Amino acid sequence: MPDFRALSDDELPSGIDAGVSVTSVCINTTIYLPWLASQCLKHGVILRRGIVMHVSSAAALHHTGKRADVVINCTGLSSGSLGGVEDNKMYPARGQLAIVRNTPTGPPGPAPTMFSLSGTDDAADETAYVMHRPAGGGTVLGGCLQRDSWESQPDPNLAIRIMKRCIELDRSLVPAGRGIEALSIIRHSVGLRPMRTGGPRIEREIVADAEANQTVVVHNYGHGGYGYQTSYGTAAVVVGLVKETLSPQARL
Fold first, then answer.
1. What is the pLDDT of residue 210?
2. Which residues does 226 contact at the CB level (< 8 Å), separation at least 6?
3. How far apart are CA 102 and CA 135, in angstroms?
4. Are 60 and 67 in contact (CB under 8 A)?
5. Which has the closest alpha carbon to 247: 204, 200, 207?
6. How high is the pLDDT of residue 135?
7. In 10 A of CB 34, how many CB atoms?
8. Could you give the CA distance from residue 198 to residue 188 in angstroms, rounded to a whole number?
9. pTM: predicted TM-score of the whole model, two decimal places
10. Element (H, E) at 99
11. What mean pLDDT value characterizes the chain?
12. Facing residues of 130 across strands?
């Protein structure tokens, strides 16, 4: 990692045993995801929506009307219940965030510092992190990692703890002497990370449905809370598996 270094004792906030500093990146996902979709369209991808109860059924959704040669399964948490997959290693890890407006910084200058702690004294499954998204994407305040929780609604008490922790971590979020009342809140949100015991599943298999239709399926799911970080690497593996499947010498 660029510029990696251990923080000295006088740089550590109160109550922190050790820390590191590193140059990294932060993306505005509300811009990045539509850009990815536009790149697919640019290269001739046909985007369709459909409902399938079995992974093999996805092969029938091909825009040509013929069955697809390969189905790539990227259904995340739904891989735990999707017919033909039903992976019992999948489980949700609930995360809760507060999205606030970026602190005005005047003319463009150095990117703001992002912060992340390994844990907090508030609860074993809570932590604190601050991510200043670029291009007006707001600042992300987190968070928690609540295993096996399907709760989709924000917890107001947790929201207060998150905002208080983040202000203590990054005083630039509010004017001096102010607290969470000075935050300009855009929204509180909840996400269920698609966690998988043993890590992501990236492999190929032949799946048969009730009508004995056999479909080659390449699985790519179970990336937990680090899907953006691993997307390019895992996609490269998937592309390799698809190419092997479609090659004349392929034997499955």
1. 73
2. none
3. 10
4. yes
5. 204
6. 86
7. 10
8. 31
9. 0.89
10. strand 90-100
11. 92
12. 115, 141
